[in-house]
From TrEMBL:
One of the record's GO molecular function terms: ribosome binding
Sequence ranges of Basic residues compositional bias: 469-482, 491-526
UniProt protein name: Eukaryotic translation initiation factor 2A
Protein species of origin: Anaeramoeba flamelloides
GO CC term, one of those recorded: cytosolic small ribosomal subunit
Positions of the UniProt region annotated as Disordered: 432-552, 607-628
Gene Ontology biological process terms, A to Z: regulation of translation
Domain (Translation initiation factor beta propellor-like) ranges: 210-402
Length: 639
């Protein structure tokens, strides 16, 4: 039997448990509290009231232990096996008077305080990290990382790594090894460095990289610690392209020799969000101006799937990696897209305009959206949906401090199995809802239209023309003109020979029978001369040009006649292109083809700007005209 899914929320006074599938409140298990933190496996939750920190067992909803707090904790963190707990308090004058440290380590069973250490940097977290087996703890202390043995903390530090300007660190277990990541900020002349060491040998790093103009650099590991993403950010953009600084993303991959391969992901635009798949070595990045691009990268840092564009700035993976939700909250009114990562199809769109917190349940069957007091002081509440968008629970509060699902160990719940038929039906319903929404929006726009006095008081049939563009009198006149031109096309002046009575020139096509021979008005076989429009002439010219281009593709520049050359490539001089061709023949053809393809990509970007009605320079306009020359040159070099 798998344990039920739990959802928790905390107001300014009480903490509540809710149980799936109906998410009813368990009133017997309410606690007074304003802040709480779950353990990584979800077995315990630490709830803070103004005096104590209460540790509750989530299975039986009973108290496990109580920790007496002297100050309000800023951060609460459990150890991997839940035997220890860290509390970090903001350093104040009270700590100075009492000579107390603001970073404390507690025993969760007895509730005793084991050690207190002074730590001044509230901006940097984590400042203390446990090893996976809970034998060691690494603590950041100004310009050094200190290691303690948890079984004998009173002895003092076991190991120490001194380094100036440490701004961030991480301590993880990769297989049988313990890896220490350190980022130290540089100065005006010295660049910032990111290094990875294998504990306890700190003499030579496994990875070292220096980057200029980097104020922050955080590391994000994949599920098996084989790969990692480095996020480098600077407060000031030296290129001047961005107002709020710049962000860069780098990819690390550990080789068989133990060292790391360093590679730039290659994103020059602003990065909104990036997250690893919790089950695979693949990650998704949201970047660019709105509508932002959403691209999935494989384990070799190569893009292999692009999601549809939309106003999204964050993402949330389900714990089994089967679903991915894209959100557009904050300064956007984008809503939530839910994608099936097994079928790479969108299954639902949630039209929710507000949300400061969101996430999946551990069985991947529910998704919640909450508005919390910390972000917004209005419309506090939460909503719980199924993966296919059905609203299960909705509740509003005057003050909501926090709301989230209880975590759990992977494998405790049965995996969600979804057939292709279920995905197809979900896709159909999503499209139908989208069409209905568009129709409702159009109807609302039409209902808000101004109705003139001569239209008021008419019947529905008479007033049905209001708000419809097809019934507009100016549009009707244009349609009449088009009809007259079409009739002229159909009626072509020509001579139709046929057997009929009488003589004379006739209009039309067809067959006529009668006594006597002669020219007359009759319908006979044969085409007459038609009055061609400008559009028809343009179409004929286009088809002729396409045929000419197919023939010209097989020619070289020197064999090409001057008239045909000018019709194909515009007003460019033939001698200049032949010079370029001779220079390219001297170089390596593969390198030339790569450079030409890059230029074609730039031209395609300019074409998009032009289609979006953005203004282009004269230089950019001439660049677009050079596209056929580059394409022809690639075609020639490949031959």
């Amino acid at each position: 039997m798998s344990k039920p899914i739990l959802f928790t929320h905390c107001t300014d006074q009480e903490f509540h448990f809710l149980e799936a599938p109906n998410f009813t409140k368990l009133e017997s298990s309410t606690y007074n509290g304003q802040k709480y933190k779950f353990s990584k496996d979800g077995k315990f939750v630490a709830i803070y009231d103004p005096l104590n920190l209460v540790i509750v067992n989530t299975q039986n909803k009973k108290r496990h232990s109580t920790l007496k707090m002297y100050h309000t904790p800023y951060v609460i963190e459990f150890s991997p096996k839940n035997n220890y707990l860290i509390t970090f308090e903001l350093y104040s004058s009270k700590h100075k008077k009492e000579n107390m440290g603001n970073l404390a380590i507690w025993d969760t069973k007895s509730g005793k305080e084991l050690i207190r250490i002074q730590s001044y940097q509230k901006e940097i977290w984590p400042q203390a990290i446990f090893s996976q087996d809970e034998t060691l703890i690494a603590i950041l202390n100004q310009s050094s990382v200190v290691f303690y043995n948890l079984k004998c903390l009173n002895i003092g530090p076991v190991k120490k790594k001194n380094q100036k300007g440490i701004r961030n660190f991480d301590f993880v277990q990769a297989g049988n090894e313990l890896l220490l990541y350190i980022f130290s900020k540089g100065g005006k002349t010295v660049g910032s460095t990111a290094e990875i060491f294998v504990y306890p040998e700190f003499s030579t790093p496994v990875f070292s990289q220096t980057l200029m103009n980097s104020d922050k650099m955080s590391i994000y590991w994949s599920f098996n610690k084989r790969c990692a993403l480095l996020s480098s950010s600077s407060d000031i953009d030296m290129t001047g392209n961005r107002y709020y600084g710049s962000t860069n993303l780098y990819w690390l991959n550990r080789q068989n020799n133990g060292k790391f391969k360093f590679q730039n992901v290659g994103i020059t635009e602003t990065i909104h969000s990036f997250k690893w798949n919790p089950v695979k070595n693949e990650f998704c990045v949201i970047y660019g101006s709105m509508p932002a691009k959403k691209i999935l990268y494989d384990d070799l840092c190569e893009p292999y799937f692009e999601f549809g564009g939309g106003s999204r700035n964050d993402q949330s993976w389900s714990s089994d990696g089967k679903f991915l939700a894209f959100t557009g909250f904050g300064n956007l009114n984008g809503g939530v897209e839910i994608w099936s990562m097994e079928h790479y199809k969108q299954i639902k769109f949630l039209d929710e305009s507000f949300g400061s917190q969101y996430g999946w349940s551990e069985d991947s069957k529910f998704f919640y959206i909450a508005v919390v007091r910390e972000k917004l002081k209005v419309d506090n509440g939460y909503k719980i949906f199924t993966t296919f968008g059905k609203l299960v629970k909705h509740e509003q509060f005057d003050v909501l401090v926090d709301a989230r699902f209880c975590p759990a160990i992977k494998g405790t719940f049965e995996p969600v199995e979804i057939n292709e038929e279920v995905i197809k039906t979900a896709n159909r319903t999503y499209r139908q809802e989208k069409k209905k929404k568009e129709l409702n929006q159009n109807n609302e726009q039409n209902s808000n239209l101004f109705i003139p006095s001569f239209k008021k008081g008419r019947t529905t049939q008479q007033s049905s023309s209001i708000g419809k563009k097809e019934r507009h009198p100016m549009f009707i006149k244009k349609k009449k003109k088009v009809k007259v031109e079409q009739e002229k096309k159909e009626k072509g002046r020509g001579r139709g020979r046929g057997r009929g009575r009488g003589r004379g020139r006739g209009r039309g096509k067809g067959r006529g029978r009668g006594r006597g021979r002669g020219r007359g008005r009759g319908r006979g076989r044969g085409k007459g001369k038609e009055n061609k429009n400008e559009k028809e002439i343009q179409k004929e010219n286009q088809t002729n040009n396409q045929k000419n281009r197919q023939n010209l593709n097989n020619m070289s520049f020197e064999e090409m006649p001057n008239k045909e050359f000018l019709s194909y490539f515009g007003n460019y001089k033939q001698d200049e292109i032949i010079k370029m061709q001779k220079e390219n023949d001297k170089k390596d053809p593969q390198k030339v083809i790569r450079n030409l393809k890059k230029k074609i990509k730039e031209i395609n970007a300019l074409k998009k700007k032009k289609s979006n009605k953005q203004k282009l320079n004269n230089a950019q306009k001439t660049k677009i005209k050079q596209e056929p020359i580059y394409k022809y040159e690639i075609h020639r070099l490949k031959k």
